[in-house]
């Protein structure tokens, strides 16, 4: 601003400051100036930066209690979590079949049109009580790859007819097969896990099929809100004009016989579509309902896992697992959190002690020496 | 806009005088014009009809406005319109965007946003990614728009100011806006109007063709300057008629040299006459004291000298921001490394699958092909930049701007920075350098108007050896000061009067007016005073109520009356005056001298002088001997009225008498009331029409001559003060003409003195004289007034024999004593003396004087000699003590700022003596300081001088260091922090004058000068030009890489203000130029303390913390994404929903940090003021050091690891989906980041709590709403119901809690340990505030109270800073030891001046005399220094005390002496005796500090002195050496 005069000031002296900051003082404070409008700033706590304030000073003395409190809270929580986690029964079986001796090894290079079926025996050492969840687990499977995660069309999955016929570009290159749109489109759907797992309890001679529920494994909101079949009566008609994903053996409307679990609202499909966070993950496969208070859901004994082996993972060094697990309020078995809480609690407690020592050694100095006279 | 065009337009080559006749050449010229820059411009009257259509150029000049506009050639002209805006409506968007993209960060962000549109790269939804960038661009654009609009508004107001322009059609002057004024227009200006353009003065209402202008707006000088009508027009008999103006003016093309204007005017008859700067009225000045002037516009608008002088403001970027930008670059580097790492990782990841079948999860390109690993890596690199872009904090810039605006708001709102008297508060004009206030290392201050009030107050006087202390006056001043402290009580007391007064003042401040009434609102000592000021709206350059309301000393007043009565009687009885007692005669002469020995001009307010030239046909000074003889044939001048105003004067006299006889304040108020009543009904109207005498008010010239209305305009405020003082004794100056002075005296009435000669003041003689013929005695008298140092030597030597001589001698010594006393009080002393000349003597002198006057060569020299011849054998009348009142609290402020580690340089245009005087008064220089004075006449001497001083200082310094080393080891541990001002020497002051400064600023010498200057505690540059001021600032800024602050009030400080890192203008005093150029404008100097120490510190620490936090926050957040890359095949995937990612900075984490950045107070204000040392943290950049950035980065890395891996392990091998897990991490990160801020926040107000709570709440609400709003809308994450689900999961809470705790533990612990084990100064300050909040109700006392136990306790005490005040030397010892100086050599060839100390302690009287012996040497610039010390009774008294010691010091063997003085034993000895001296000093000082007055303060001073005196010993020693090293010649260069 090159031009500055007295004149300017006289003319605009009153605004000069306001122009810059744009804060008018508001009605003049009438304490001193009886004038019409004084530019005296308001004497308010806020404007004078005198708001009542808490000014914590971090010294050993002042933070001592915090450490002890944290320690005292964390350790019990940790113990609680740890105990809970330990009470969870979990059984895991790897059926990838990379090992020669593995029953499923034969399926690695299966060339038949018939699906490869392999059976694995295992023994449960402890009874599984309450609800038992059956998971399939994949390792080294990057469901969180950037382009993979994006490769879906939520509108299509939500039953939008337009998207059904013309899926989102995000689905490329699994958007169309020739001219026909793929339903469901995208890489996620295309790579859906399609092994079938069956569980049998082995008696002396007979196999008793363990009833596996395939409903209720997906989020309620997914099943009822996010995923919907396109409107129309017959699913096969609804999906007419679309084609199945390349890797799928059968179209989406033949995933299940149950119309409530078919098409896009097939729960296995929904579960798969919820992409996992980490390359090693598990997904809920089936539910085993509890039998009652007296009988454990899965009693101790020999079991047989029959696998219809379809899903190829060995090409990229992936692993496939079947996991049986009971659950608690905190989900699956995970001792980490409990240990972490206990450790951190102990450390805090220890630090509290250290600080106590420091406080006694140095803390007093501040109080006395700081203040002149 | 039209600057170039304008330059082109009228400029013709210099040789082309008569362009009118040389049309072909002119046309040719026109063609070449674009190629050749011509040297002159030609101006003609716009009123002349255009000479012909073939000459567009001439038409442009010649046509009236309408014409010119129609012909469209006006673009050649720079018109008077002011345009400072950057944008127009149309150009705003493109131009603003263009400017915004100058900021690299914006380009970066836009680029990244655009990356998102590339399908192979896109990490986020492209539209979404643009949002933050657009938001930030929009915010900035709105801010710019607003600023530009405000500029436009102020331009508009200036452009639409009115002035009178001659209109050809109406044949008279009509009102026009400023912007309509063109070159060649005739402008008429009335008294007190501001000049709209550079105007050549053609006519003035003044019979002598003079016009006074006030140039305060331009150069900061408040005295009036005379301008002259162009000579030929002066001789015009008739009134000037613009229509008849046919001359052509040739002058230089526009340039920015204020002090130069050359050109000539060519009359119709071909006669040429030269034009000088005396003929030019400059835009921005104010017409004073002249009823009406007319002139022709020469330069207009942006071509005026005033505007050319204003280079636009430098774009300032704060130091912190520069540092921050450095770290932003580091961030870029980190980002690049991270991206590269990811890219390589991804390449490898792709490569490992390359051989075999592609995995299911590797999505091929849309054509089904797979990318090669290398290409995939390259693409991923760019993708990662998008994903990790937040590392470069996009919202940082906008947040900083917001924070700064809020900080500015709070600075504005501080009521301590509000000045009641002027109803003005601090203005922040630069929004982006608030934090620089907290890092200032050097302060460059103007003196006049900045440190001082720039008004002189008559305080005491001595007449013929009798002191009249004017106690009542002192009491009255004290009362003002008291009133200041209890301002609330004043209001009821003032009653309606003060109410009305303040109303009036408010109105007059705000009303658009052109009278000088704002002038009267200049700040005075207190609010009560301000009221009086507003009541007594006297439009006077150097008059404030303080100056005018002098309560006469009753004793003296009585004597004056008595004297006058005697005279009256004597005159009636036709007796000679010699019958008067000597004392009364002295008193009489004293007052006559006060009244007439000056150049004060008398006028009535708003009434230009109407000169009555009746008495003398001859104009003085006497030109020839014949004149002399003619004039001195006895014709006694009778006293009496030579104007018709005697009756009114007599009535006034009585009013005045009654007024002055009361000494109580009440009566002053009552007289004020009368005056106020008179003035209030008249002044508003004057304000409105700017000049005129309104009808009905009964204001006539006669009325206005009432005494109250008389105003005195003086070249220097001292003169005005003296004249007002004399008037208080009813001895008032009523008229001054070039050849006569009229004085109104009690009983005697008006006396008119014939003024024979005025020998003006010059700084070499340091005195001025008038030669008059006394009307009563018809004697020729010489009255001289001058600095006591020179005057005392010029007195008539009195013989010790006769009693009269003895008496006179006694008077002289008494007077000298009182003078010394005055000097101690910080008063400016003047001696008044008289000499009676016999006619013969006069004739003799006159002859030679006239010869001198008429000689061509050496005229100045001869005149000087002539003056010296006259001013001898004077008879001492008395002495006066005038106070150039320092602004309130200046010494305290300077002391505090110094303690804060700031080095204060004073750069003033004032003369050396005055500057040194003030420097002492405001404690910038101490009397126990050694002062180096640099006065050199040539480059070589300057170089030699610098060399010597440097050598001297270094040797002295290093010897001190050696001595001090022992002390350091014993007394102080390494606890003491090194200071940036490490090289300051505690007791050196440097005084340098303008000429020498010019040499010293030469490229070859600047380094030496600087290294000398930085050793000095204070530097004083006198007589420096504005340019030099800015050069000095630039030098320090560039060479020392120091943060500089320049403070000034006048336009002469503008360049300095603009050059400094921070420019501060004192508002309201001398125009607004300084304020407009400044970054901050404060009403008072003392407010600098709060501005720097408190607000500066806060702003700095807040911003530093915020910036660091920002870096931490973004790094921490981005690192989370980076760690994730290890688990997603480096695919650039992010587990955090992109909406969260994008809006994390803008929404969730922005508010708390803004609140903290605006409101956090690391140390309370009281402590910051009480312990100025805390300011050093800013100077040393303690809050934001380079390593801190890395510490924060490491902490960020750690925290992100924790925040990533705790959830990782907690959710490992579970069925958690990517975005649920990401939300957990996001929540943890948010908690951690906000709690981290909590640890860093020092002060929690409800706003902080609210902000933090709000942020977290906002996140949850947004997340919940977002996750419930649409089941398909947010691809790809589509996080429907995620948050809801998570919140039902205890794992979520458990993970969040433990992660946050673990993440914050180290920092929390670090802060705790730091606060306990090795607290910083600031932390101690905080603790201090906490433990002892009550003690700081009286902070000064508590803090500055020295420790009796000294170092011992200091050492143990953690808060060493607060004790430093008690022990400055210790403060400096370690510092000194750090600066590696060459070892001392014993023999020194220091050329230095006598300093107070030297004078006082080490030189005995004979030595002083010998030095004095040099003084009559004409050029003896250091004499000023002498004045200080010798007029210093403190010094005197100590001389006596020290005498036994000084005999030791005067030992001839100087090497021995040096040895002695360097011995600790001696040191102790010296200290002991110094102690006694200092107690003496304290006593004396105690008396002068009315306001401070507390015993504690005195104690403090005593201690300070004691400690610093240790140094003095050394000074003494070395100084003594130097004096005998026979190097005095250099001294006197």
UniProtKB/TrEMBL annotation, chain A:
Residue ranges, compositional bias (Basic and acidic residues): 167-176
Protein origin, superkingdom: Eukaryota
Annotated transmembrane regions: 57-83, 336-358
Protein topology in the membrane: Multi-pass membrane protein
GO cellular component, one term: apical plasma membrane
Keywords: Cell membrane, Cytoplasmic vesicle, Disulfide bond, Glycoprotein, Golgi apparatus, Lipid transport, Membrane, Transmembrane, Transmembrane helix, Transport
Localization (cell): Apical cell membrane; Cytoplasmic vesicle, Secretory vesicle membrane; Golgi apparatus; Membrane
UniProt-annotated stretches for the region Disordered: 152-176
Compositionally biased region (Polar residues): 156-166
Gene Ontology BP annotations: positive regulation of neuron projection development; positive regulation of phospholipid translocation; positive regulation of protein exit from endoplasmic reticulum; protein localization to endosome; xenobiotic transmembrane transport
Pfam families: CDC50
Family matches, as InterPro entries: CDC50/LEM3_fam
Main subcellular location: membrane
A Gene Ontology molecular function term of the record: aminophospholipid flippase activity
UniProt keyword Transport present: yes
Family note: Belongs to the CDC50/LEM3 family.
Descriptive protein name: Cell cycle control protein
Taxonomic classification: Eukaryota, Metazoa, Chordata, Craniata, Vertebrata
Protein encoded by which gene: TMEM30A
TrEMBL record, chain B:
GO biological process: one example: phospholipid translocation
Any one GO molecular function term: ATP hydrolysis activity
Cofactor: Mg(2+)
Positions in coiled-coil regions: none
InterPro entries assigned to the protein according to its UniProt record, in alphabetical order: ATPase_P-typ_cyto_dom_N (IPR023299), ATPase_P-typ_P_site (IPR018303), ATPase_P-typ_TM_dom_sf (IPR023298), ATPase_P-typ_transduc_dom_A_sf (IPR008250), HAD-like_sf (IPR036412), HAD_sf (IPR023214), P-type_ATPase_IV (IPR006539), P-type_ATPase_N (IPR032631)
Domain P-type ATPase C-terminal positions: 1075-1320
Transmembrane segment boundaries: 104-122, 328-350, 370-392, 1107-1127, 1139-1159, 1189-1212, 1218-1239, 1246-1266, 1291-1310
Boundaries of every P-type ATPase N-terminal domain copy: 74-127
Bias kind Basic residues: ranges: 27-42
Topology versus the membrane: Multi-pass membrane protein
Stretches the record annotates as Disordered: 1-75, 508-530, 636-661, 1339-1444
Pfam families from the UniProt entry: Cation_ATPase (PF13246), PhoLip_ATPase_C (PF16212), PhoLip_ATPase_N (PF16209)
Active site (catalytic residues): 446 (4-aspartylphosphate intermediate)
Binding site for Mg(2+): 446, 448, 1049, 1053
Domain of life of the native organism: Eukaryota
Catalytic activity: a 1,2-diacyl-sn-glycero-3-phosphocholine(out) + ATP + H2O = a 1,2-diacyl-sn-glycero-3-phosphocholine(in) + ADP + phosphate + H(+); ATP + H2O + phospholipidSide 1 = ADP + phosphate + phospholipidSide 2; a beta-D-glucosyl-(1<->1')-N-acylsphing-4-enine(out) + ATP + H2O = a beta-D-glucosyl-(1<->1')-N-acylsphing-4-enine(in) + ADP + phosphate + H(+)
PROSITE patterns named in the record: ATPASE_E1_E2
Family that this chain belongs to: Belongs to the cation transport ATPase (P-type) (TC 3.A.3) family. Type IV subfamily.
UniProt function note: Catalytic component of P4-ATPase flippase complex, which catalyzes the hydrolysis of ATP coupled to the transport of phosphatidylcholine (PC) from the outer to the inner leaflet of the plasma membrane. Initiates inward plasma membrane bending and recruitment of Bin/amphiphysin/Rvs (BAR) domain-containing proteins involved in membrane tubulation and cell trafficking. Facilitates ITGB1/beta1 integrin endocytosis, delaying cell adhesion and cell spreading on extracellular matrix. Has low flippase activity toward glucosylceramide (GlcCer).
Protein name (record): Phospholipid-transporting ATPase
Natural source organism: Sarcophilus harrisii (Tasmanian devil)
Taxonomic lineage: Eukaryota, Metazoa, Chordata, Craniata, Vertebrata
């Amino acid at each position: 601003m090159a031009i500055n005069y007295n004149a300017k000031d006289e003319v605009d002296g009153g605004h000069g400051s306001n122009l810059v900051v744009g804060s008018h003082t508001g009605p003049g404070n009438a304490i001193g100036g009886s004038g019409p409008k004084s530019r005296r700033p308001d004497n308010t706590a806020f404007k004078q930066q005198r708001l009542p304030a808490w000014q914590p000073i971090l010294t050993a003395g002042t933070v001592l209690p915090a450490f002890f409190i944290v320690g005292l809270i964390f350790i019990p929580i940790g113990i609680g979590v740890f105990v809970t986690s330990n009470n969870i029964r979990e059984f895991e079986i790897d059926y990838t079949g990379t090992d020669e001796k593995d029953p499923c090894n034969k399926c690695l290079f299966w060339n038949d049109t018939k699906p490869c079926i392999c059976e694995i025996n295992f023994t449960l050492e402890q009874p599984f009580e309450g609800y038992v969840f059956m998971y399939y687990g994949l390792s080294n499977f990057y469901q969180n790859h950037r382009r993979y995660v994006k490769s879906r069309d939520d509108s299509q999955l939500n039953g939008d007819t337009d998207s059904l016929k013309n899926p989102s570009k995000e689905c490329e290159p699994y958007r169309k097969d020739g001219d026909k749109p793929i339903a469901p489109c995208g890489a996620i759907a295309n790579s859906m896990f399609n092994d079938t797992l069956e569980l049998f309890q082995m008696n002396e001679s007979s196999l008793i099929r363990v009833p596996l529920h395939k409903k209720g494994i997906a989020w309620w909101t997914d099943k009822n809100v996010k995923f919907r079949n396109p409107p129309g009566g017959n699913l096969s008609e609804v999906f007419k004009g679309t084609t199945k994903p390349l890797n799928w053996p059968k179209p989406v409307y033949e995933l299940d016989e149950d119309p409530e679990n078919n098409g896009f609202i097939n729960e296995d499909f929904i579960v798969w579509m919820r992409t996992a966070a980490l390359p090693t993950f598990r997904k809920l496969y089936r539910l085993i309902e509890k039998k009652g208070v007296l009988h454990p859901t899965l009693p101790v004994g020999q079991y047989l896992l029959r696998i219809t082996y379809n899903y190829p993972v060995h090409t990229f060094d992936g692993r496939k697992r079947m996991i049986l697990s009971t659950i608690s309020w905190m989900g699956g078995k995970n001792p980490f959190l409990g240990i972490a809480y206990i450790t951190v609690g102990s450390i805090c407690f220890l630090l509290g002690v250290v600080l106590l020592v420091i406080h006694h050694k140095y803390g007093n100095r501040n109080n006395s020496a700081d203040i002149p006279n | 806009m039209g600057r170039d065009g304008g330059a082109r337009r009228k400029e013709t080559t210099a040789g082309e005088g008569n362009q009118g006749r040389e049309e072909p050449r002119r046309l040719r010229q026109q063609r070449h014009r674009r190629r050749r820059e011509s040297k002159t411009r030609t101006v003609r009257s716009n009123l002349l009809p255009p000479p012909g259509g073939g000459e567009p150029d001439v038409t442009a000049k010649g046509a009236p406005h309408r014409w010119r506009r129609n012909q469209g050639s006006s673009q050649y002209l720079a018109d008077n319109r002011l345009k400072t805006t950057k944008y127009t409506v149309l150009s705003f968007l493109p131009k603003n965007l263009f400017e915004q993209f100058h900021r690299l960060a914006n380009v970066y962000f836009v680029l990244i946003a655009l990356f998102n549109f590339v399908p192979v790269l896109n990490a986020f939804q492209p539209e979404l990614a643009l949002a933050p960038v657009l938001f930030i661009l929009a915010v900035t654009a709105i801010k710019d728009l607003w600023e530009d609009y405000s500029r436009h508004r102020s331009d508009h107001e200036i452009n639409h100011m009115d002035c009178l322009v001659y209109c050809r059609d109406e044949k008279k002057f009509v009102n026009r806006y400023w912007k309509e004024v063109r070159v060649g227009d005739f402008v008429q200006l009335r008294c007190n109007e501001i000049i709209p353009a550079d105007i050549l003065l053609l006519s003035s209402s003044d019979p002598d063709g003079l016009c006074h202008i006030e140039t305060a707006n331009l150069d900061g000088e408040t005295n009036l300057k005379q301008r002259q009508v162009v000579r030929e027009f002066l001789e015009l008999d008739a009134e000037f008629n613009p229509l008849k103006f046919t001359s052509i003016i040739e002058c230089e093309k526009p340039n920015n040299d204020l002090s130069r204007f050359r050109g000539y005017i060519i009359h119709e008859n071909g006669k040429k006459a030269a034009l000088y700067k005396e003929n030019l009225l400059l835009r921005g000045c104010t017409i004073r004291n002249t009823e009406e002037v007319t002139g022709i516009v020469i330069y207009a608008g942006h071509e005026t000298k005033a505007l050319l002088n204003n280079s636009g403001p430098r774009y300032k970027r704060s130091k912190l921001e520069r540092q921050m930008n450095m770290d932003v670059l580091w961030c870029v580097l980190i980002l690049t490394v991270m991206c590269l790492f990811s890219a390589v990782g991804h390449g490898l990841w792709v490569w490992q699958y390359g051989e075999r079948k592609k995995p299911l999860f590797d999505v091929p390109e849309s054509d089904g092909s797979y990318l090669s690993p290398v290409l995939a890596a390259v693409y991923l690199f760019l993708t990662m930049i998008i994903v990790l872009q937040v590392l470069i904090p996009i919202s940082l810039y906008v947040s900083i701007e917001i924070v700064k605006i809020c900080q500015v708001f709070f600075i504005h709102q501080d009521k301590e920075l509000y000045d009641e008297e002027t109803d003005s508060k601090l203005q922040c004009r630069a929004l982006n350098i608030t934090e620089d206030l907290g890092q200032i290392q050097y302060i460059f201050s103007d003196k006049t108007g900045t440190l001082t009030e720039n008004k002189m107050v008559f305080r005491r006087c001595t007449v013929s050896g009798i002191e009249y202390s004017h106690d009542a006056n002192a009491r009255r001043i004290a009362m003002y000061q008291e009133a200041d402290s209890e301002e609330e009580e004043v209001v009821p007391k003032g009653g309606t009067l003060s109410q009305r007064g303040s109303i009036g003042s408010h109105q007059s401040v705000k009303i658009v007016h052109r009278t000088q009434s704002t002038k009267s609102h200049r700040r005075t000592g207190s609010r009560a005073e301000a009221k009086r000021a507003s009541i007594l709206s006297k439009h006077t350059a150097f008059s404030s109520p303080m100056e005018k309301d002098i309560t006469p000393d009753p004793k003296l007043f009585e004597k004056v009356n008595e004297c006058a009565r005697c005279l009256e009687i004597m005159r009636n009885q036709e007796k000679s005056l010699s019958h008067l007692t000597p004392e009364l005669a002295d008193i009489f002469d004293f007052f006559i001298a006060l009244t007439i020995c000056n150049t004060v001009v008398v006028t009535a307010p708003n009434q230009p002088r109407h000169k009555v030239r009746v008495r003398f046909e001859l104009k003085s000074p006497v030109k020839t001997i014949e004149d002399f003889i003619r004039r001195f044939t006895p014709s006694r001048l009778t006293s009496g009225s030579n104007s018709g105003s005697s009756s009114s004067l007599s009535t006034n006299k009585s009013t005045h008498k009654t007024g002055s006889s009361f000494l109580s304040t009440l009566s002053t108020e009552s007289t004020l009331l009368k005056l106020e009543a008179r003035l209030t009904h008249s002044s508003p109207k004057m304000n409105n029409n700017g000049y005129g005498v309104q009808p009905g008010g009964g204001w006539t010239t006669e009325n206005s001559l009432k005494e109250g209305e008389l105003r005195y305009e003086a070249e220097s405020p001292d003169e005005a003060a003296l004249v007002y003082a004399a008037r208080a004794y009813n001895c008032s100056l009523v008229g001054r003409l070039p050849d006569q002075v009229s004085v109104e005296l009690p009983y005697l009435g008006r006396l008119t003195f014939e003024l024979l000669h005025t020998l003006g003041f010059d700084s070499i003689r340091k005195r001025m004289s008038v030669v008059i013929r006394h009307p009563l005695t018809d004697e020729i008298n010489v009255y001289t007034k001058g600095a006591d140092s020179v005057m005392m030597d010029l007195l008539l030597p009195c013989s010790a024999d006769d009693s009269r001589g003895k008496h006179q001698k006694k008077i002289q010594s008494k007077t000298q004593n009182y003078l010394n006393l005055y000097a101690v009080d910080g008063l400016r002393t003047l001696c008044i003396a008289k000499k009676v000349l016999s006619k013969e003597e006069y004739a003799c002198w006159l002859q030679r004087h006239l010869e001198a006057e008429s000689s061509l060569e050496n005229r100045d020299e001869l005149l000087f000699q002539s003056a010296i011849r006259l001013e001898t054998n004077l008879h001492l009348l008395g002495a006066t003590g005038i106070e150039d009142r320092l602004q309130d609290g200046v010494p305290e402020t300077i002391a505090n700022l110094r303690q804060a580690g700031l080095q204060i340089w004073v750069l003033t245009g004032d003369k050396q003596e005055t500057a040194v005087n003030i420097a002492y008064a405001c404690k910038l220089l101490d009397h126990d300081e050694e002062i180096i004075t640099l006065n050199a006449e040539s480059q070589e001497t300057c170089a030699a001088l610098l060399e010597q001083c440097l050598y001297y200082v270094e040797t002295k310094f290093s010897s001190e260091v050696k001595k001090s080393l022992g002390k350091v080891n014993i007394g102080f541990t390494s606890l003491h922090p090194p200071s940036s001002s490490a090289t300051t020497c505690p007791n050196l002051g440097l005084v340098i004058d303008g000429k020498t400064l010019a040499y010293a600023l030469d490229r070859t010498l600047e380094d030496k000068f600087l290294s000398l200057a930085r050793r000095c505690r204070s530097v004083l540059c006198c007589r420096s030009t504005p340019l030099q001021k800015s050069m000095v600032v630039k030098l320090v800024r560039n060479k020392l890489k120091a943060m500089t602050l320049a403070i000034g009030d006048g336009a002469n400080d503008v360049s300095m203000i603009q050059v400094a890192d921070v420019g501060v203008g004192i508002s309201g005093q001398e125009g607004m130029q300084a304020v407009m150029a400044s970054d901050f404008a404060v009403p008072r100097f003392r407010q600098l303390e709060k501005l720097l120490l408190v607000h500066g510190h806060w702003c700095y620490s807040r911003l530093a913390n915020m910036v660091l936090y920002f870096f931490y926050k973004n790094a921490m957040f981005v690192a989370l994404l980076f760690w994730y890359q290890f688990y997603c095949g480096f695919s650039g995937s992010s587990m955090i929903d992109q909406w969260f990612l994008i809006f994390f900075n803008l929404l969730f984490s922005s508010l708390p940090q803004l609140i903290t950045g605006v409101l956090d107070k690391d140390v309370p204000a009281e402590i910051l003021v009480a312990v100025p040392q805390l300011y050093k943290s800013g100077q040393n950049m303690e809050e934001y050091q380079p390593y801190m950035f890395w510490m924060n980065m490491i902490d960020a890395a750690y925290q992100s690891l924790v925040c990533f891996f705790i959830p990782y392990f907690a959710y490992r091998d579970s069925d958690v989906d990517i975005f649920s897990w990401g939300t957990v991490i996001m929540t943890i990160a948010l908690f951690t980041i906000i709690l981290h801020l909590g640890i860093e926040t020092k002060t929690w107000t409800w706003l902080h709590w609210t902000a933090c709570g709000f942020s977290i709440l906002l996140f949850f609400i947004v997340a919940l709403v977002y996750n419930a709003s649409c089941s398909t809308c947010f691809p790809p994450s589509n996080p429907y119901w995620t948050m809801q689900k998570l919140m039902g999961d205890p794992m979520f809470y458990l993970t969040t809690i433990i992660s946050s705790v673990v993440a914050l533990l180290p920092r929390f612990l670090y802060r705790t340990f730091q606060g306990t084990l090795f607290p910083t100064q600031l932390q101690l300050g905080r603790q201090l505030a906490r433990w002892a909040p009550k003690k700081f109700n009286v902070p000064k006392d508590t803090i500055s109270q020295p420790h009796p136990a000294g170092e011992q306790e200091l050492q143990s005490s953690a808060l060493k800073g607060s004790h430093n005040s008690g022990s400055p030397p210790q403060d400096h010892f370690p510092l000194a030891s750090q600066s590696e100086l060459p070892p001392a050599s014993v023999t020194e060839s220091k050329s230095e001046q006598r300093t107070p100390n030297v004078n006082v302690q080490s030189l005995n009287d004979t030595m002083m005399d010998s030095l004095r012996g040099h003084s009559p040497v004409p050029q003896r610039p250091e004499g000023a220094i002498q004045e200080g010390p010798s007029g210093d009774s403190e010094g005197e008294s100590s001389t006596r005390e020290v005498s036994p010691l000084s005999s030791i010091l005067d030992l001839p063997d100087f090497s021995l002496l040096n040895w002695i003085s360097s011995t600790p034993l001696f040191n102790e000895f010296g200290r002991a005796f110094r102690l006694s001296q200092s107690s003496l000093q304290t006593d004396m000082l105690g008396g002068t500090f009315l306001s401070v007055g507390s015993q504690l303060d005195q104690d403090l001073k005593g201690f300070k002195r004691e400690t610093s005196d240790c140094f003095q010993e050394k000074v003494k020693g070395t100084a003594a050496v130097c004096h005998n090293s026979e190097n005095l010649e250099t001294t006197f260069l």
